[in-house]
Specification:
single chain, 435 residues, Pdz3 Domain, 2-enoyl-CoA Hydratase, Chain A, domain 1, 6-stranded antiparallel β-sheet, hydrolase, Tricorn protease-like protein, serine-type peptidase activity
Length: 435
């Protein structure tokens, strides 16, 4: 999935024909030099470039130029790829509202329907709930395939149809990003509750931060507060990923230190990967304090300078009473670092996976300057699980498929969670009968 004109410039920028040509050439050069999958840049790609070039170089406005370049990038059919200006102040629902949605037919025609609405996010604060039908933004009707966009740093009006079938308009305050880069509006990261009968529930909305000290500590604190639970549901629905903080969830699934996986750029791809991966340094502990980040950086500096892959490895946190009795709840928006958790659980048979297919979006990425304040975000390496699986473009199929039913959700039912609860309790009953 590419970043499109949802990220438009906040101030007018004058681009000459030469500027547009140079920026396009810089984009193409950056892709040739750093794009993770050079085999995608062959004849079909070159033909696509020449097909899109007249629209790109002939764009009248900056917005149409940005859209034209973004349209070209969609030809590569890969995630973590986008084109935007450094002054961009608009963002998607996922970033601005801490909410996700899907398209479906409704009594109001084809519409976007909210699926995940994370507690503490802008949408949740505004009273938007899963199952609500989106009609328009700032007085403008929005229908699929057009995605809604939200101006950061201002109040946005959103027209929805709630579960009472009444139209209403609500105001959403979209916070301004910090610095030059777009930031997620952080929701409540971790939620827990007791479900009764020794069953605990843990929801993680995202994994902010490169190392994820804060979210890792919150996860550990939440598990400690749950006490001696015998079974655990971990809800990763709507978790679109983040950083290494996801390692803490993986470490809750097993008492052992087990290799998880690594990101590999195209220069490191080798036929001898099975033996080469044994030489990669391993990261196996998220520090408890940010004060330990400098020593950590020094420890891994040689590998980072040499651009050597670093293997993630579960932390070895010891035996938990719920080990072997864990359910992972996932959906089509479970992506990136959250998918790493799902793949780790699948490869090591550590949990039952329930819900929808995951997003199949898992690459390491960066962004580079391409001129006149524009940047190209591009994937530079594919993520490999320890067993050698590449998840990009290949969603993880759950052990038990339970599709999101927005009509039931509007009625207050969460069928996916209900299914997870029934499954984990029925397994417990069957085990007790055989003891």
């Amino acid at each position: 999935m590419t970043t499109n004109s949802a990220l438009k410039t906040a101030v007018p920028i004058q681009l000459s024909a030469k500027d547009r040509h140079v920026i396009l050439e810089n984009v193409l050069h950056a892709l040739q030099k750093r794009f993770y999958s050079p085999e995608k840049l062959k004849e079909d790609w070159r033909m696509a470039v020449e097909r899109h070039r007249p629209l790109i170089e002939g764009s009248v406005t900056t917005d149409t130029f940005e859209q034209a370049v973004s349209d070209l990038l969609t030809e590569l059919h890969t995630s973590h790829l986008g084109f935007f200006h450094r002054s961009a102040r608009r963002a998607s629902s996922r970033a601005a509202l801490s909410a996700t949605y899907l398209a479906d037919d409704t009594p109001y025609g084809k519409r976007w329907i909210f699926q995940d609405v994370h507690s503490g996010g802008a949408a949740n604060i505004a009273g938007i709930a899963p199952g609500d039908i989106l009609l328009g933004v700032d007085g403008r009707e929005i229908t699929p395939p057009e995605h809604p966009i939200f101006v950061m740093g201002k109040q946005t009006s959103i027209e929805i149809v709630g579960n009472d079938e009444q139209r209403r308009t609500t105001s959403v305050d979209v916070a301004r990003p910090k610095g030059k880069k777009l930031h997620f509006i952080q929701p409540t990261l971790v939620e827990t509750r007791h479900m009764g009968g020794g069953l605990g529930y843990l929801k993680v909305a995202m994994f902010p931060g490169m190392v994820g000290v804060e979210v890792a500590n919150q996860i550990s604190d939440a598990i400690e507060k749950l006490g001696a639970i015998e079974r655990l549901i971990i809800d990763l629905r709507g978790n679109t990923g983040g950083g290494i903080g996801a390692l803490r969830v993986m470490s809750l699934l097993t008492p052992e230190k087990i290799p998880v996986g690594f990101a590999l750029d195209r220069r490191r791809v080798t036929k001898n990967l099975e033996s080469a991966k044994l030489t990669f340094p391993r990261f196996s502990r998220i520090p408890a304090s940010t004060k330990a980040l400098w020593p950590l950086a020094l420890k891994f500096a040689p590998a980072m300078l040499a651009k050597k892959p670093i293997v993630l490895q579960s932390e070895g946190l010891g035996k938990k009473p719920f080990h072997g009795r864990v359910v992972l709840l996932v959906n089509r928006h479970t992506a990136s670092a959250a998918e790493m958790i799902v793949a780790f659980a699948r490869e090591n048979q550590l949990a039952t996976i329930i819900g929808e297919k995951t997003a199949g979006r898992l690459l390491s990425a960066t962004s580079v300057k391409v001129g006149k304040g524009f940047r190209l975000a591009l994937p530079t390496g594919a993520y490999y699980t320890w067993e050698g699986t590449v998840l990009e473009g290949d969603p993880i199929v759950p052990d038990q498929m339970v599709e999101f039913d927005w009509r039931d959700r509007r009625g207050g039912r969460d069928q996916q969670l209900e299914h997870a609860i029934n499954h984990i309790r029925s397994v417990a009953v069957m085990k007790s009968m055989h003891q």
